[in-house]
Design a protein that fits this description.
17 strands; Protein-Tyrosine Phosphatase, Chain A; 6-stranded mixed beta sheet; 8-stranded mixed beta sheet
Length: 439
C-alpha cells in the first residue's frame, strides 16, 4: 500500500522546489546520503510507492550484466523505435551530460523535465534519504510514468538483486556477459556475481542470457523461481558468413543480417541476446525485418569502441574491467597496424588495473596515464608504477588530462593510433577537452 500521508521536512513542495537548475539538484544529491552506494530496495521502494511509478510502461525490459548492458539497451531502442514503438530508456552513467541517462523516443530529456521530476521525488521521499543513483532512478521512472509509452528499457546500475532499478518487475529480463567487477559489492567470483545479476529474474517470466557459459548460480536461480530461461548457444544461436550473420532462435530465425554498427566482435553476442528478447516478446511487440536491419545498421552509442578516423585514429572505449579489456584488445587486433599506439588510461581505484591492462601487452607502444577529476579515481603515479612493474611499454603519468593531451599533441604523428580507455570518466574528460591531434 502506498504511503502518501507523511509530511515533508524543508523539501520541495508543489509551489517551491528546492532548487532552480539541474546543476544545483545534482550537486545536492551527491551529498544527500551518508554513502555514495547503499544497495537495497526498502527506501527506494517506499518512495516509488508514493510516486506510483513502479509500472513505467505497459512493457518493461530490464538489462543486467557485467559488460554489454548499454550496448544491448541501445540495440533494443534502435530496433523498437524503427518498429514504430514509443520507447524510453534509462542508462548510467553518462558521458558528458546527465540528461543522457534518460531518453524518450531516442532523445535525452531536457533540464526542465529533470528538475520537475527531481522536485517530485524530493517531495515524495519525505524523511527517506536516497543515494545519487536512487534519486536519479526514481526521477527516470517518474518521467516515464507520465509519458504515453509502449516500452521502457531499464539498465541496472550495479549488480541486479539489490539495485534500485529492481523495484520494477520486468516483463522480460536480459542478462549479458558476466565477469569480475565491483567485487566489494557483488562478490569476488562469477558464481557470487551471477547470483546478484540473476536477482532481476521474476517467477515464471522469460529471461534471456547472452553469456554462453553462465555461472551455475544463475541457472539455479532460474530454476528456483521457475523463470523461462534462454541461453546463447543452447536456446538461440549465431553464425557468420562474410560480413553478414545469422540468428536462430526457438521460434524463428533471421538470416543474412547486417553486422551491428557498434564496433567489436562481441557486439554479435549482444545483438543475439536482443533478438532473442524480441523473439520471445513477438506477440506483444511485433517487429518486422526492416526494423531489425535498420536498428542494427544505425545504432549508435558513444564511448563503446568509438572510432574517430583521421590521419591519427582515435578509439574511445569506457571499458574498465578485464572482460571488457579482452573485447577491446580483440578489436584492436582486427584493425590495420599503426606506427605507434598510445594508450590514454585513467581508472577508478577500486578496479583491478593489472588485470585490465594485461590484454594490451603486445598492442600498446606507449602508456599515458592520468589523474581524473573525480574522488574515486586512482593515482596516475600508482598506475604508472603498476605498469612498469608488470613489464608494460614506456609509461608517463600526468596530473591532468589537459597536461596529457599537450604531451601527446607534441609527439603523435600521422599513422599513429590513440586509444582512450579505463573509465567513463576518462573518455568523458577526453571528449570534453575536444583535443585536436596533428595531421
Amino acid at each position: 500500500m502506498a504511503d502518501t500521508g507523511r509530511q515533508v521536512n524543508s523539501g520541495s513542495t508543489a509551489n517551491s522546489p528546492r532548487f532552480s537548475n539541474l546543476q544545483q539538484w545534482l550537486q545536492w544529491q551527491e551529498t544527500l546520503h551518508p554513502s555514495a552506494i547503499e544497495l537495497g530496495l526498502e527506501r527506494v521502494g517506499r518512495v516509488a510507492d508514493r510516486l506510483h511509478c513502479r509500472q513505467p510502461a505497459p512493457r518493461v525490459i530490464t538489462v543486467a550484466g557485467t559488460n554489454g548492458k548499454g550496448s544491448s539497451v541501445a540495440l533494443l531502442e534502435a530496433i523498437l523505435l524503427r518498429a514504430g514503438y514509443r520507447v524510453a530508456a534509462y542508462t548510467s552513467p553518462h558521458l558528458l551530460r546527465y540528461n543522457e541517462r534518460i531518453r524518450l523516443n531516442g532523445n535525452p530529456v531536457d533540464d526542465t523535465t529533470l528538475c520537475d521530476a527531481f522536485a517530485r521525488v524530493d517531495t515524495a521521499r519525505a524523511d527517506d534519504s536516497l543515494t545519487y543513483f536512487e534519486f536519479g532512478t526514481l526521477a527516470a521512472l517518474d518521467i516515464m510514468t507520465r509519458e504515453s509509452l509502449d516500452v521502457a528499457l531499464l539498465e541496472v546500475g550495479l549488480g541486479g538483486r539489490l539495485d534500485a532499478v529492481n523495484i520494477v518487475d520486468p516483463d522480460i529480463a536480459l542478462i549479458t556477459t558476466i565477469g569480475i567487477d565491483h567485487i566489494e559489492w557483488l562478490g569476488s567470483d562469477r558464481e557470487a556475481i551471477g547470483r546478484e545479476k540473476a536477482g532481476i529474474m521474476r517467477a515464471q517470466r522469460p529471461v534471456v542470457c547472452g553469456d554462453s557459459d553462465p555461472p551455475a548460480s544463475l541457472l539455479k536461480t532460474a530454476q528456483a523461481v521457475r523463470a523461462q530461461l534462454s541461453i546463447l548457444g543452447r536456446d538461440f544461436h549465431i553464425s557468420q558468413r562474410g560480413r553478414q550473420w545469422h540468428w536462430q532462435g526457438g521460434k524463428g530465425q533471421w538470416r543474412d543480417l547486417p553486422r551491428p554498427a557498434l564496433a567489436g566482435a562481441h557486439q554479435l553476442a549482444n545483438a543475439a541476446g536482443v533478438l532473442q528478447v524480441l523473439d520471445v516478446m513477438q506477440a506483444e511487440l511485433p517487429v518486422e525485418r526492416a526494423a531489425v536491419e535498420g536498428g542494427l545498421k544505425w545504432v549508435s552509442l558513444p564511448g563503446r569502441v568509438q572510432q574517430q578516423s583521421g590521419s591519427v585514429e582515435q578509439i574511445l572505449d569506457v571499458s574498465h574491467n578485464a572482460q571488457a579489456a579482452e573485447a577491446l584488445a580483440d578489436t584492436l587486433r582486427q584493425l590495420p597496424p599503426a606506427t605507434h599506439t598510445y594508450a590514454v588510461l585513467g581508472m577508478m581505484r577500486d578496479k583491478d588495473a593489472a588485470a585490465f591492462v594485461q590484454p594490451f601487452q603486445e598492442l600498446v607502444t606507449d602508456w599515458l596515464v592520468t589523474d581524473l577529476s573525480v574522488e574515486r579515481a586512482g593515482s596516475a603515479v600508482q598506475l604508472a608504477g603498476m605498469l612498469q612493474e608488470t613489464g608494460h611499454a614506456p609509461v608517463t603519468p600526468f596530473a591532468t588530462m589537459r597536461d596529457l593531451i599537450a604531451h601527446l599533441q607534441a609527439r603523435v604523428k600521422p599513422g599513429d593510433r590513440v586509444m582512450v580507455c579505463g573509465s567513463f570518466f576518462t573518455v568523458a574528460e577526453w571528449l570534453a577537452l575536444e583535443p585536436v591531434l596533428p595531421g
